[in-house]
Amino acid sequence: MKNILITGTNSYSKNSLSSWLTRYPDDYSIDTISLRDNAWKAKDFSYYNVVFHVAGMAHVSSDPNMEEEYYRVNRDLTIETAEKAKRDGAEQFIFMTVL
After folding, report:
1. Beta carbons of 14 and 6 less than 8 angstroms apart
2. How much is the pLDDT for 11?
3. DSSP H or E stretch at residue 4
4. Which portions of the chain are predicted below pLDDT 50?
5. For position 60, what pLDDT does the model report?
6. In degrees rounded to 5, what are phi and psi of residue 54?
7. What pLDDT, on a 0 to 100 scale, did the predictor assign at position 1?
8. Closest among 43, 54, 58, 45 to 21, alpha carbons compared
């Protein structure tokens, strides 16, 4: 049994992956977590074989004021999540983005 944590509770990618994985209940256990606030930082990732990171901003705004937010979410949050997964001992970190 693989224990999988998927970030991005409301994302299309999370919904699609969860839908596919739930067809194999003897093989995969799935949890999801939101990264919209800092509560996720207290979660222990060591339970999970895989942290599948799909949280992010999929649509780039032409508004230059959004550039900093885009990088904060899509770059900085990804790095922070990967570092936490490594520190906590998760076996694998998968980052998927749709641009």
Report:
1. yes
2. 81
3. strand 2-7
4. none
5. 65
6. -125, 5
7. 95
8. 54
**pLDDT of 98:** 65
What is the end-to-end Cα distance of the chain in Å, rounded? 32
Ramachandran quadrant class, 28 (left: phi over 0; alpha: psi -120 to 50; beta: rest): beta
CB 77 within 8 A of CB 35: yes
Residue 58 corresponds to which amino acid? A
Any idea what DSSP says for residue 66?
G
Rounded to 5 degrees, what angle do the CA atoms 92, 95, 98 make? 160
Residue 73 pLDDT: 86
Q: What is the pLDDT of residue 71?
A: 85
Cα(54)–Cα(56) distance, integer angstroms: 6
